[in-house]
From TrEMBL:
GO molecular function per UniProt: translation elongation factor activity
Acidic residues bias: start-end ranges: 39-48
Region (Disordered): 34-59
The name this protein goes by in its record: GreA/GreB family elongation factor
PANTHER family (UniProt xref): TRANSCRIPTION ELONGATION FACTOR GREA
InterPro entries in the record: GreA/GreB_C_sf (IPR036953), Tscrpt_elong_fac_GreA/B_C (IPR001437), Tscrpt_elong_fac_GreA/B_fam (IPR023459), Tscrpt_elong_fac_GreA/B_N (IPR022691), Tscrpt_elong_fac_GreA/B_N_sf (IPR036805)
Domain Transcription elongation factor GreA/GreB C-terminal: 80-151
Domain (Transcription elongation factor GreA/GreB N-terminal) ranges: 7-73
Length: 158
Protein backbone atom coordinates (compact mmCIF):
# COMPACT_ATOMS: atom_id res chain seq x y z
CA UNK A 1 0.00 0.00 0.00
CA UNK A 2 1.14 3.52 -0.67
CA UNK A 3 0.75 4.95 2.83
CA UNK A 4 -1.53 7.66 1.44
CA UNK A 5 -5.29 7.63 1.11
CA UNK A 6 -6.43 4.44 -0.59
CA UNK A 7 -9.61 4.01 -2.64
CA UNK A 8 -12.26 1.52 -1.67
CA UNK A 9 -14.86 -0.28 -3.72
CA UNK A 10 -18.47 0.87 -3.75
CA UNK A 11 -19.41 -2.32 -1.91
CA UNK A 12 -16.84 -1.68 0.83
CA UNK A 13 -18.01 1.95 1.10
CA UNK A 14 -21.62 0.81 1.55
CA UNK A 15 -20.55 -1.68 4.22
CA UNK A 16 -18.59 0.98 6.11
CA UNK A 17 -21.45 3.46 5.87
CA UNK A 18 -23.87 0.84 7.22
CA UNK A 19 -21.49 -0.06 10.05
CA UNK A 20 -21.14 3.65 10.86
CA UNK A 21 -24.93 4.10 11.02
CA UNK A 22 -25.26 1.02 13.25
CA UNK A 23 -22.48 2.21 15.55
CA UNK A 24 -24.05 5.67 15.88
CA UNK A 25 -27.39 4.07 16.80
CA UNK A 26 -25.68 1.84 19.36
CA UNK A 27 -23.80 4.84 20.76
CA UNK A 28 -27.06 6.78 21.22
CA UNK A 29 -28.56 3.84 23.11
CA UNK A 30 -25.53 3.40 25.38
CA UNK A 31 -25.20 7.14 26.02
CA UNK A 32 -28.87 7.26 27.00
CA UNK A 33 -28.25 4.72 29.76
CA UNK A 34 -25.48 6.68 31.45
CA UNK A 35 -26.43 8.45 34.66
CA UNK A 36 -25.10 11.69 36.02
CA UNK A 37 -22.51 11.55 38.81
CA UNK A 38 -25.17 12.45 41.38
CA UNK A 39 -27.41 9.52 40.36
CA UNK A 40 -24.82 6.73 40.72
CA UNK A 41 -25.56 4.62 43.78
CA UNK A 42 -23.61 1.65 45.11
CA UNK A 43 -20.41 0.09 43.81
CA UNK A 44 -22.29 -2.24 41.46
CA UNK A 45 -23.95 0.78 39.84
CA UNK A 46 -20.58 2.50 39.58
CA UNK A 47 -19.01 -0.56 37.93
CA UNK A 48 -21.90 -0.75 35.47
CA UNK A 49 -21.47 2.95 34.63
CA UNK A 50 -17.72 2.41 34.06
CA UNK A 51 -18.47 -0.46 31.68
CA UNK A 52 -20.88 1.70 29.69
CA UNK A 53 -18.36 4.56 29.62
CA UNK A 54 -15.70 2.13 28.32
CA UNK A 55 -18.17 0.89 25.71
CA UNK A 56 -18.79 4.50 24.62
CA UNK A 57 -15.04 5.04 24.27
CA UNK A 58 -14.72 1.92 22.07
CA UNK A 59 -17.68 3.00 19.94
CA UNK A 60 -16.26 6.53 19.58
CA UNK A 61 -12.88 5.16 18.47
CA UNK A 62 -14.43 2.86 15.85
CA UNK A 63 -16.73 5.64 14.62
CA UNK A 64 -13.69 7.92 14.28
CA UNK A 65 -11.73 5.22 12.43
CA UNK A 66 -14.55 4.66 9.94
CA UNK A 67 -15.08 8.39 9.38
CA UNK A 68 -11.34 8.83 8.75
CA UNK A 69 -11.29 5.87 6.32
CA UNK A 70 -14.26 7.23 4.38
CA UNK A 71 -12.66 10.69 4.17
CA UNK A 72 -9.40 9.13 2.94
CA UNK A 73 -11.25 7.08 0.34
CA UNK A 74 -13.00 10.21 -0.90
CA UNK A 75 -9.64 11.98 -1.23
CA UNK A 76 -8.15 8.99 -3.09
CA UNK A 77 -10.98 8.86 -5.61
CA UNK A 78 -12.27 5.75 -7.33
CA UNK A 79 -10.36 2.49 -7.43
CA UNK A 80 -8.16 2.17 -10.53
CA UNK A 81 -9.50 0.17 -13.45
CA UNK A 82 -6.32 0.04 -15.54
CA UNK A 83 -4.07 -1.53 -12.90
CA UNK A 84 -4.83 -3.57 -9.76
CA UNK A 85 -4.69 -1.50 -6.59
CA UNK A 86 -6.34 -1.34 -3.18
CA UNK A 87 -10.06 -1.06 -3.76
CA UNK A 88 -9.94 -2.80 -7.14
CA UNK A 89 -12.35 -5.47 -8.24
CA UNK A 90 -10.33 -8.01 -10.19
CA UNK A 91 -11.32 -11.19 -12.00
CA UNK A 92 -8.61 -13.85 -12.03
CA UNK A 93 -8.26 -17.27 -13.66
CA UNK A 94 -6.65 -19.95 -11.56
CA UNK A 95 -4.42 -22.73 -12.92
CA UNK A 96 -7.36 -25.16 -12.87
CA UNK A 97 -9.26 -22.88 -15.27
CA UNK A 98 -11.76 -21.57 -12.73
CA UNK A 99 -12.39 -17.83 -12.54
CA UNK A 100 -13.23 -15.73 -9.51
CA UNK A 101 -13.93 -12.05 -9.00
CA UNK A 102 -12.19 -10.65 -5.92
CA UNK A 103 -11.95 -7.34 -4.09
CA UNK A 104 -8.47 -6.14 -3.09
CA UNK A 105 -8.91 -4.45 0.27
CA UNK A 106 -7.10 -3.34 3.36
CA UNK A 107 -8.83 -5.61 5.85
CA UNK A 108 -10.73 -8.75 5.00
CA UNK A 109 -14.07 -9.27 6.65
CA UNK A 110 -14.33 -12.63 8.38
CA UNK A 111 -17.27 -13.79 6.27
CA UNK A 112 -16.29 -12.13 2.99
CA UNK A 113 -14.91 -14.91 0.82
CA UNK A 114 -14.30 -12.56 -2.14
CA UNK A 115 -11.94 -10.18 -0.32
CA UNK A 116 -8.17 -10.49 -0.42
CA UNK A 117 -6.03 -8.10 1.55
CA UNK A 118 -3.32 -6.09 -0.16
CA UNK A 119 -0.73 -7.62 2.17
CA UNK A 120 -1.76 -11.26 1.58
CA UNK A 121 0.37 -13.34 -0.82
CA UNK A 122 -2.24 -13.14 -3.60
CA UNK A 123 -3.01 -9.47 -2.89
CA UNK A 124 0.67 -8.50 -3.03
CA UNK A 125 1.11 -10.46 -6.28
CA UNK A 126 -1.88 -8.72 -7.89
CA UNK A 127 -0.97 -5.13 -6.98
CA UNK A 128 0.20 -3.25 -10.06
CA UNK A 129 -0.96 -5.93 -12.52
CA UNK A 130 -2.93 -5.30 -15.68
CA UNK A 131 -5.37 -7.57 -17.57
CA UNK A 132 -3.45 -10.41 -19.19
CA UNK A 133 -0.66 -10.42 -16.59
CA UNK A 134 0.26 -13.74 -14.99
CA UNK A 135 1.47 -13.73 -11.40
CA UNK A 136 2.89 -16.35 -9.09
CA UNK A 137 2.43 -16.48 -5.33
CA UNK A 138 2.91 -18.86 -2.42
CA UNK A 139 0.07 -20.60 -0.59
CA UNK A 140 0.15 -23.02 2.35
CA UNK A 141 -0.18 -25.77 -0.29
CA UNK A 142 2.73 -24.51 -2.39
CA UNK A 143 3.52 -22.19 -5.27
CA UNK A 144 0.68 -21.33 -7.67
CA UNK A 145 -0.40 -18.64 -10.07
CA UNK A 146 -3.29 -16.71 -11.58
CA UNK A 147 -3.93 -14.70 -14.72
CA UNK A 148 -5.61 -11.30 -14.38
CA UNK A 149 -8.69 -11.48 -16.64
CA UNK A 150 -10.19 -8.04 -15.97
CA UNK A 151 -10.17 -5.11 -13.57
CA UNK A 152 -13.27 -3.24 -12.50
CA UNK A 153 -16.85 -4.34 -12.03
CA UNK A 154 -17.78 -7.61 -13.61
CA UNK A 155 -20.17 -7.38 -16.53
CA UNK A 156 -23.75 -6.80 -15.42
CA UNK A 157 -22.84 -5.21 -12.07
CA UNK A 158 -23.50 -1.63 -11.05
Amino acid sequence: MTGGPEPISAEARRALEQELADLRDERRLVAGTLKSDTEVGDQADQADELQRADQLDRLDRRIGDIEERLRGASEAGPAPTDVVGVGSTVTVRFTDGSQETLQVGEVAEALDQTMVTADSPLGRALLGCRPGDSVQYDTPDGHTGVVVVSIGDTPGED
